[in-house]
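$ ./design --mode recover --in tokens.txt
reading tokens...
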């Protein structure tokens, strides 16, 4: 190794940035420095088993290959890329690379500068700028000479400044009227520099010359040594608020006029009952002039025996916000009394804080007298109504009983109708299943046992003929006949087993499944994996028979249609649920297409399975993907 290579090696190993060397042809990583090991979390051996594609997110691999293929530069600043660390986290790196020859191969040194934090800061700054630009308020910055550095879009729009206009020579005094500039010079700017902020109501000067009332905040931004390095201001247009304030004053005047003209007695009191305001009607109701009432306590106008109740109701008004329709005996200036109805409610400020209580008093003496007369007449009428109500209740009871019986009968008829429909469907399904089974059994007899017996008959005829002609083949024909007879017996037993396997009655479901699977494996090349949870458990006879038929139908479909090399069956009990799962690795099928074609043999077999599961009140799930096999899952709820 010459001195140049030694210096380069030292530079490579001791460079504070992660560096790696990769083969330009295979992209295999040939070497890494210690800072790369620390940054990416791999050991050296792990790194040297990777390619540069392995440290990229999958979606960045193709752009990487394109970049490599299109570049012929010796030295290349490749820009910003994403790299993956061993723990799966992603970092942003700025890539610089140099083509070199390493051990006779074309290779490239790569320096990866981690700029993840810088990227986050840039993104955060972009988000902040986006927020400032999106805000409807004027946001601007200015230097210590009060020269404006930046105004957001909302601020430009607020003062009528076009987006393209330069603000290089714009001062804060240029966007305020003269009277505001006096406030800025005398108070706002000095206060901000000393205390860090200032706020108040000012005005902006629009480019067209009119003033815009605003609420303004000025903030001081300090450097590392506490010195103010620049100012920022946030300004909100309060034109609508000012307009609303004027309207509020006008509205207040109108309401005052309405209160004075009201026929009701209106009084405004504080939380101790002191009268703050009353209209002329309130004063006259008690026989006073308005000037005599102000400053007095409202409770002094209530009869002594009612005052404690009135004070308690005032506290209740403060808690609930209002208290209406309370009657008290009130006193007049001349010492006489009248019955009054008082409605009270809390008056709140703009923040919802209670400020006072308004009370509206009405003289209800005449009304109460009339109410008494009406009450007496009403009591007499009520007696008559109660008599009629008793008669109505008796009739209503009879009608209710009739209606209830009618509803019960309708429900019974509906249940019977549904049950009848279910029975008709089951009967049709049963006839259909029997016909299919008869056809299958007939086909089995014809195709298997029938052919064997025909061959046996032919052999016996040959044997008889050869006996008559003294041919030497008689013994051969007889032996073949015996073999055919044995085969016929086996086939007859198989058909009988298919109709009702005796092992199911003698040894139960698990044993019958194992025997069925053994027969399938003898007849086919399908390898079947069996998982039966509890071997010696016996279930209800109908349950075992139906489950066996489901397994038999499923494996018939696998043998005939799936072209599978492997299959599995699992029967497991979980609590009171018996779960059956049968799967294969065959060609699968399109469920929508199969279930649409009702004449398809596979469709018929799956429908048989579904109907048998429904007989047991269970749930069936069929999952099949073309080219990936089929899975049938049945769940049966056990009784007891």
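writing sequence...
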């Amino acid at each position: 190794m010459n001195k140049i290579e030694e210096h380069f090696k030292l530079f490579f190993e001791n460079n504070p940035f992660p560096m790696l060397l990769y083969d330009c042809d295979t992209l295999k990583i040939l070497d890494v420095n210690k800072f790369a090991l620390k940054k990416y979390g791999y050991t050296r051996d792990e790194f040297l088993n990777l390619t540069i594609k392995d440290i990229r997110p999958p979606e960045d691999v193709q752009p990487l290959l394109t970049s490599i293929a299109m570049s012929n530069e010796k030295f290349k600043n490749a820009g910003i890329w994403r790299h993956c660390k061993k723990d799966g986290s992603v970092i942003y790196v700025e890539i610089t690379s140099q083509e070199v020859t390493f051990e006779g191969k074309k290779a490239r040194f790569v320096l990866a500068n981690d700029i993840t934090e810088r990227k986050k800061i840039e993104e955060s700054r972009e988000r902040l700028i986006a927020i400032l630009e999106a805000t409807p308020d004027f946001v601007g910055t200015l230097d210590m000479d009060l020269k404006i550095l930046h105004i957001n879009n909302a601020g430009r729009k607020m003062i009528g400044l076009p987006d393209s206009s330069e603000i290089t020579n714009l001062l804060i005094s240029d966007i305020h009227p003269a009277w505001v500039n006096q406030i800025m010079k005398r108070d706002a700017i000095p206060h901000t520099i000393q205390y860090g902020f200032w706020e108040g109501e000012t005005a902006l000067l629009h480019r067209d010359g009119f003033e815009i009332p605003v609420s303004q905040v000025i903030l001081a931004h300090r450097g590392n040594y506490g010195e103010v390095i620049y100012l920022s201001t946030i300004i909100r247009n309060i034109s609508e608020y000012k307009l609303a304030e004027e309207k509020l004053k006008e509205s207040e005047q109108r309401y005052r006029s309405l209160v004075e003209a009201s026929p009701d007695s209106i009084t405004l009191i504080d939380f101790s009952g002191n009268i703050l305001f009353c209209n002329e009607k309130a004063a006259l109701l008690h026989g006073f002039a308005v000037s005599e009432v102000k400053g007095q306590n409202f409770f002094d106008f209530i009869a002594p025996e009612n005052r404690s109740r009135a004070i308690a109701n005032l506290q209740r008004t403060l808690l609930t916000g209002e208290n209406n329709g309370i009657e008290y005996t009130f006193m007049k200036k001349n010492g006489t009394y009248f019955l009054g109805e008082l409605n009270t409610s809390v008056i709140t400020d703009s923040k919802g804080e209670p400020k006072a209580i308004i009370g509206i008093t009405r003289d209800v003496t005449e009304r109460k007298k009339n109410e008494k007369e009406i009450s007496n007449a009403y009591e007499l009428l009520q007696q008559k109504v109660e008599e009629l109500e008793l008669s109505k209740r008796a009739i209503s009871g009879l009608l209710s009983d009739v209606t209830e019986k009618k509803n019960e009968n309708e429900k019974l008829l509906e249940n019977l109708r549904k049950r009848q429909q279910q029975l008709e469907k089951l009967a049709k399904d049963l006839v259909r299943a029997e016909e299919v089974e008869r056809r299958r059994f007939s086909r089995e007899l014809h195709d298997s046992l029938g052919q064997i017996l025909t061959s046996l008959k032919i052999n016996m005829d040959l044997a008889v003929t050869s006996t008559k002609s003294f041919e030497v083949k008689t013994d051969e024909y007889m032996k073949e006949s015996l073999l055919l007879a044995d085969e016929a017996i086996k086939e007859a037993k198989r058909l009988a087993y298919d109709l009702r396997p005796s092992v199911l009655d003698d040894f139960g479901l698990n044993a019958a499944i194992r025997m069925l699977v053994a027969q399938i494996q003898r007849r086919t090349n399908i390898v079947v994996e069996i998982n039966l949870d509890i071997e010696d458990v016996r279930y209800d006879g109908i349950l075992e028979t139906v489950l066996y038929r489901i397994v038999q139908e499923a494996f018939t479909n696998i043998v005939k249609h799936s072209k599978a090399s492997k299959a599995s069956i699992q029967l497991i009990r979980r609590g009171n649920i018996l779960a059956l799962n049968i799967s294969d690795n065959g060609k699968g099928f399109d469920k929508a297409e199969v279930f649409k074609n009702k004449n398809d043999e596979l469709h018929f077999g799956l429908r048989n399975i579904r109907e048998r599961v429904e007989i047991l009140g269970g749930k069936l799930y069929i999952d099949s993907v073309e080219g990936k096999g089929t899975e049938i899952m049945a769940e049966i709820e056990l009784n007891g």
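exit 0
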